[in-house]
Design a protein that fits this description.
This protein is α/β, with parallel strands linked by helices and about 300 residues long. The chain has ten helices and 13 strands. The strands form two sheets. Strands 5-4-1-8-9-10-11-12-13 form a nine-stranded mixed sheet, sandwiched between helices. A four-stranded mixed sheet has the order 3-2-6-7.
């Protein structure tokens, strides 16, 4: 089943203790689509400026991502600049330039409107709702956001959440959104805003999923070399939602498997800058790591 995503397509400038990358391909929708493309067809909605090179378009096409909803307009592409210290769980945003996103009015191509599964990646919550309004009757709507939007557009974000079934955010964002230091309390509050399932991403400590069935915890894959965590959250979301769109099963068992698949994809992404590591993975590698996850947290009752 095709998966519809709206989010940013960007140039990122990133510094980590292990190196730096200047104006490389990034953006929430880019990471998400690339990751999801291993599991399902993806229809992308975003905007880029006239400085966006053909080689990036060709890469997205090579991953079979449908770009009919990618508008190209005069002006500069969205840019984000961030820095990480030795604690790679916390990104420090140095600069955000919305550029062409400032006046973007998304218009869905006709063949996108019947989407059953929708992902509102990290972008202005006004745009998230603008896209959602144009989808006929989605079965599942999931979303992500970040501190930038929680600070600058909180009311709009709360409005978006009323129509969201699954929210994926990190621990700092969950605390910021609710004013609760305790994540279990924060989760209960977020569920009262609309989403029935919440996934809190905790970087190297894994992911915790909350819903009416209880709490599920997926570890992060223990890697020796983490180079750049940029896009880990979006790559997680791509694996998670791609798996759900592929199975079209939203039972708790499948949600748990999807959370592990998201963790597998995110673990590859952080091994290199930009999308370098997830450009062209072999599906067998993905399956092998998925099975390793089972061994990581399996134990026998006495
Ligand atoms: P993640 O590390 O998964 O949270 O996502 C990082 C990606 O989000 C980067 O590639 C950025 O281009 C993109 N990004 C950063 N800030 C924003 C923002 N305010 N709105 C949309 N996308 C953003």
């Amino acid at each position: 089943m095709a998966l519809l995503v709206v989010g940013s397509v960007a140039f990122d400038t990133v510094e980590t203790p292990f190196g730096q990358a200047q104006e490389v391909l990034g953006g929430s929708a880019t990471y998400f689509s690339t990751s999801a493309s291993y599991f399902t067809d993806v229809n992308l909605v975003a905007v880029v400026g006239d400085d966006f090179p053909e080689k990036h378009i060709n890469f997205l096409k090579m991953r079979n991502i449908n770009l009919d909803g990618l508008e190209r307009t005069g002006g500069k592409t969205f840019r984000w600049q961030g820095k990480y210290g030795y604690d790679l769980n916390e990104a420090q945003t140095l600069n955000t330039e919305l550029n062409v996103f400032e006046h973007f009015k998304p218009k869905l191509p006709e063949h996108y409107k019947g989407a059953d599964v929708v992902f509102l990646a990290n972008i202005d919550p006004d745009l998230q709702r603008e896209v959602l309004k144009q989808v006929n009757s989605p079965k599942i709507v999931a979303a992500d956001t970040m501190n930038f939007w929680i600070e600058s557009k909180r009311d709009s974000l709360i409005e978006t959440l009323k129509n969201v079934n699954i929210l994926l955010i990190n621990d700092g964002e969950a605390r910021q959104l609710t004013g609760e230091a305790n994540l279990v309390k924060a989760a209960r509050k977020i569920i009262s805003y609309g989403p029935s399932t919440l996934l809190i991403k905790r970087g190297e400590y894994g992911v915790t999923m909350f819903n009416e069935h209880g709490i599920f915890i997926a570890p992060a894959y223990p890697l020796e070399d983490v180079f750049d965590p940029t896009g880990a959250g979006d790559t997680f979301a791509g694996g998670f939602m791609g798996y759900l769109a592929n199975t079209m099963d939203f039972t708790d068992e499948t949600l748990r498997r999807a959370a592990v698949m998201g963790s597998v994809m995110a673990s590859y992404n952080v091994e290199d800058f930009s999308l370098n590591k997830i450009r062209d993975l072999d599906y067998k590698e993905i399956e092998t790591r998925f099975r390793e996850f089972k061994a990581l947290s399996h134990f026998e009752d006495i």
